[in-house]
Write a structure and sequence with these properties.
With 253 residues, the protein is of the alpha+beta class. The protein has one domain (52-252): Sortase, Chain: A. 26% of the residues lie in helices and 25% in strands. It contains three helices and eight strands, in the order H-H-E-E-H-E-E-E-E-E-E. The chain has helices at 5-16, 28-78, 118-121; strands spanning 99-102, 109-114, 126-128, 144-149, 170-174, 178-192, 213-221, 228-241. Strands 1-2-3-4-7-8-6-5 form an eight-stranded mixed barrel. It is globular. The N and C termini lie far apart (107 Å). Mean pLDDT is 83; it is low at 1-17 and 83-87.
Length: 253
Amino acid sequence: MAATADDTEEHTAMSASPSPPARRRMGPGALLVSALGELLITAGLVLGLFVVYSLWWTNVLADREAGKQADKVRDKWAQGPGGDAGDGPASYDSKNGIGFLHVPAMGDDILIEKGTTMKVLNDGVAGYYTDPVKATLPTSGKKGNFSLAAHRDGHGAKFHDIHKIKDGDPIVFETKDTWYVYKTYAILPETSKYNVDVLAKVPEESGRKKAGHYITLTTCTPVYTSKYRYVVWGELVRTEKVDEDRTPPKELR
């Protein structure tokens, strides 16, 4: 049977259509490079998520927990005499906190709790040393060193801006009944994390040779590492009784 014009046109069109290109096979080297690239991309994403978690989300969680604990402390203080809220030893062993640190150069008010373990500091607070050197609490009335530690990055990062503290800057410790006003007199930007002498009752590395009422702030340095320790020392200049309105000392106004 003779082909019609339409049959001829259809056959020509089908014959003229290009055949699909043959798929190129990747050699072992190319496959390895491709797989390695995908692994690096995945690792980069995981690392990025870890950084976000470490430097942002842990701050959110720690600040939330510290806020709850701070509210408990102030609620106990508001109960007045007879509660576990005075300046006595029972209050200073409270798991909720013993008072607040105010350092204008660093900004936030910081709840202080007992101990410097990660379990304590990860809640977004500052902790006073119980080991290897025991801190001397200001409320004891004894001369010594009220030594504290806090994180510099992540978990609230309460001492993140410690490098902004300068000689002469105020450091204030608030309890239920008393404001303890210290004045910064020495700074050690870097020392070994094993240097416990900076926590001594008489911190001679700060230049002091006699017993006094000192405060010491310690944290990790450089930022985002824990290789060394940054240290700030202050000395008590006066105390003030807390009034009914809890009016802060002039250094905090």
